[in-house]
Amino acid sequence: ETLDKGLEKTKQNVFSKLARAVAGKSKVDDEVLDDLEEILVTSDVGVDTTIKIIHRIEERVARDKYVSTNELNDILKSEITALLTENNTGSNSDWVLPEHAHPYVILVVGVNGVGKTTTIGKLAYQFKQAGKKVYLGAADTFRAAAVEQIQIWGDRVGVPVIKQQMGADPASVAFDTLQSAKANGADVVIIDTAGRLHNKIGLMNELKKIKDVMKKVVPDAPHEVLLVLDGSTGQNAFEQARQFAAVTQITSLAITKLDGTAKGGVVIGISDQLKVPVKYIGLGEGMEDLQLFDKAQFVDSLFK
Ligand code: GDP
């Protein structure tokens, strides 16, 4: 899906309320700001980020004495753009990988059901389309279905999947994957992990071990620790993001299922609160329904 189409619900159900809030008013006053606050909170931008945005607009109103409601959209757009954390882990206009990293290693974390496997499959597809040699590692050895699902995506996209039997040591799978990938001159390696948030110490140790073992094959790996979040769960996604950030260092986010949800505002809040860039967004179930996140494009789509 296209970004505009994918964000349609968020736009319609939420950001168009803004138009109603200012209808018939020429000046941004306390009432408009109250309405705006409610709109942002109910669109899953999150309370803290909403307060931040409202404060900035209040400051502007106090400074300029008069802010017309016609300007409000543009002000909001620029404030939201400023809050979105810049992606500095690579180009955002193309599926380009940093040259210094070979292979480029992405460790993928997230709880079950958020679209982790699908995102890995879509990433594999995009990188393959971009002419890269991709390897996948099935290090979520906790669930047999997880390994099967990764294999299905590997077959669909046409990239190798390195796996072991269920219950195997995830770090050992990661090690095997990196060794095979390196020996075969792979450009990018994407490793799935089990996201068992209910056992935080276990998860923390497991991820640490995987990272340590990776370095034995590729010294600066992982280059990216990607947390996958389900955007349609709104505040739950927020909570998961906080919990994962406490367990391991997250360097990028993929927010899935933005198609068909009105909770797209969650992208703004999570990016602001975590100070981690949203790098990818999921806009459907198909292989091609993953986009590199471009904050200007995203904000433009929301306010179009
Ligand atoms: P995992 O358990 O986290 O690995 O989740 P899966 O990758 O198996 O995805 C769970 C469900 O969400 C599947 O039915 C996917 O097709 C669906 N899904 C994943 N990403 C997206 C997305 O961006 N949009 C939509 N609409 N569905 C998605």
From TrEMBL:
Binding site for GTP: 110-117, 192-196, 256-259
Keyword terms, alphabetized: Cell membrane, Cytoplasm, GTP-binding, Hydrolase, Membrane, Nucleotide-binding, Receptor
UniProt-listed Pfam families: SRP54, SRP54_N
Gene Ontology molecular function terms on file: GTP binding; GTPase activity; signal recognition particle binding
GO terms under cellular component: cytoplasm; plasma membrane
Domain SRP54-type proteins GTP-binding as annotated: residue spans: 277-290
Membrane topology: Peripheral membrane protein
Catalytic activity: GTP + H2O = GDP + phosphate + H(+)
GO biological process: one example: SRP-dependent cotranslational protein targeting to membrane
Matching InterPro entries: AAA+_ATPase, P-loop_NTPase, Signal_recog_particl_SRP54_hlx, SR_rcpt_FtsY, SRP/SRP_N, SRP54_GTPase_dom, SRP54_N_sf
Function: Involved in targeting and insertion of nascent membrane proteins into the cytoplasmic membrane. Acts as a receptor for the complex formed by the signal recognition particle (SRP) and the ribosome-nascent chain (RNC).
Known partners and oligomeric status: Part of the signal recognition particle protein translocation system, which is composed of SRP and FtsY.
Family per similarity comment: Belongs to the GTP-binding SRP family. FtsY subfamily.
Protein name: Signal recognition particle receptor FtsY
Species annotation: Prevotella multiformis DSM 16608
